Amino acid sequence: MRKTWWKILGAVLIIYTAIAGLLLDVPKLDILNETIRNLYFHVPMWFTMIVLFSISIYYSTRSLITKSEEDDLRCVESINVGIIFGILGIVTGAFWAKYTWGEYWSSDPKQNFAAIALLLYFAYLILRNSIDEDQKRAKISSIYNIFAFPMMVVLLFVLPRLQASLHPGNGGNPGFNSYDLDSRMRAVFYPACIGWIIIGYWIYSIRIRIRSLENKKF
Fold it and tell me: What is the pLDDT of residues 80-100, one digit of tens each?
């Protein structure tokens, strides 16, 4: 039970998010209307991605120091899972944009920079797959990742704030928490963020075990 309580917690929080997120009342806002419920799913995807990419930075640094195959494996798998959540973040955002801005992709700065940030990590995977020698692959991809992470932070959190944007909290628009993220929504939003982060880490740990078993076969 000591090893599984956090998995149970993650599952319970996601179930709670799905039920409460669809059934509880939300603020009645112009344009957004009921689509504001997507906040419980869209934003946690990005938070989970950032947590997983942060884990990858830790293991990239360790890999350069220890030259450990396990550290390199943990780094790449955290990025693999992080990319999945990044894609989910873009997809949920595109559907939200369709119903609020009129288009799936409106070339909003946040959308564009988010896509570029993901491309940085797709390039990481391409770079890894282009190098055959294990130690060389681990070293070069770790160095690349250490530079890619701060670039991702700038693309997601700095540059969008310097331009006109439809996103809340960017381009002079007030953030959700300043005008419409009331106590009802916080009661779902915060558990949603915690739950999705736990689920993301759970998927990451499963992939680590699978890859470890595969490596033992060879």
Answer: 999 999 999 999 999 888 888
Calpha distance 35→176 (Å, rounded):
13
Q: What's the chain's average pLDDT?
A: 87
Q: Is 50 exceeded by the pLDDT of residue 178?
A: no
Dist CA 149 CA 144 (whole Å): 9
Please tell me the predicted confidence (pLDDT) of residue 180.
53
Per-residue pLDDT band at 33 (split at 50, 70, 90)? confident
Q: Can you give the pLDDT at residue 170?
A: 52
Chain-centre distance of CA 61, in angstroms?
20
d(CA 108, CA 97): 10
Cα–Cα dist 180/31, whole Å: 13
pTM for the model: 0.89
Nearest in space to 91 (alpha carbons), one of 54, 46, 122: 46
State how far the Cα of 17 lies from the Cα of 43, in Å rounded to an integer.
13
Burial of 120: CB neighbours in 10 Å, binned 0-12, 13-18, 19+: middle
Letter string b/e over residues 167-205, b meaning 16 or more CB atoms within 10 A of that residue's CB = bbbbbeeeebeeebbeeebeebbebbbbbbbbbbbebbe
- Tokens representing 18 are 């799905």
| Distances from the Cα of 174 to the Cα of 30, 89, 161, 165, 171, angstroms | 15, 21, 11, 11, 9
